[in-house]
Amino acid sequence: MSARNPGMELDLAWVSRVRVNHQGVLRRAQQVQTRRAVKKEWQAAWLLKAVTCIDLTTLSGDDTPSNVQRLCFKAKHPIRDDLMESMGMQDKGITSAAVCVYPSRVCDAVKALQAAKCNIPVASVATGFPAGQTPLKTRLEEVRMALEDGASEIDIVINRTLALTAQWEALYDEIRQFREACGEAHMKTILAVGELGSFSNIYKASLVAMMAGSDFIKTSTGKEGVNATFPVAIVMVRAIREYFWKTGVKVGFKPAGGIRSAKDSLLWLSLIKEELGEEWLSPALFRLGASSLLSDIERQIFHYVTGRYAAYHELPMA
Length: 318
Known about the structure:
Elements: H1 12-16, H2 22-33, H3 40-51, E1 54-57, H4 65-76, H5 81-86, E2 98-101, H6 106-115, E3 122-126, H7 136-148, E4 153-157, H8 160-164, H9 168-182, E5 186-190, H10 199-211, E6 216-218, H11 230-247, E7 252-254, H12 262-275, E8 288-290, H13 293-306
Parallel strand pairs: 1-2, 1-8, 2-3, 3-4, 4-5, 5-6, 6-7
Helix pairs in contact: 2-11, 3-12, 3-13, 4-6, 7-9, 9-10, 10-11, 11-12
């Protein structure tokens, strides 16, 4: 992971100055979405880069120790071994960036990864995920419990009510408490952009989250009606860029929710490269929150290696 973001004092004057050109954001998003895809070996290389940035996720009510164990195996072996050998990539140590689960499944994930002799980090959602509407004391305790069970990354959710009512000091104070509870663990702050009402609110919430010490800002829980879209991503990454220009601190970005196709992952990588630069193209500063994305990437790599698309039984772990 990247170096910790130390945060800063809340600068309400900076927050209040925020203005977002709505039409400009939509035009830029349209440019990104109509971009021609890279082909052949370049595409395979970019897809493998995307694999290394995936937080392989299961956040379902029917999660069990066995399907978490299966997820961890897939995180360690994201692409079938024979396909990696065909590309000469079998010794490159390509794994997913992390495994992301509910707090009650952290123990299962830690045990599974230890049994596999693998040091992939375990990320846990916390703080009343997905709504963030439980009492603050409970949300803080959830962070501590996930850390005690072995999580090294915490994906917190903000209280959207505070952002919608412009209570930026209260939001800053809450996130600052989560930051302190996280200790040395890396903290990703989920803004739940689909529930923030406007691009200006998204930009302001991004700034406040970074000022409070977030190591990453993340679009969504994946449970809202609107999740990771290119317009909200542009707003968030430009907030990251401005924060870097003013403080010298690099904060990571994680889109999550609705990212399912290999083509989508290439567009996300392209956006990050153009808006933030190549330094951000690593799991230290860029993550893709996804559950089914890896399956499509593996199918595309199978096609690159064999010249045909895989039958269902040929990629059983997908």
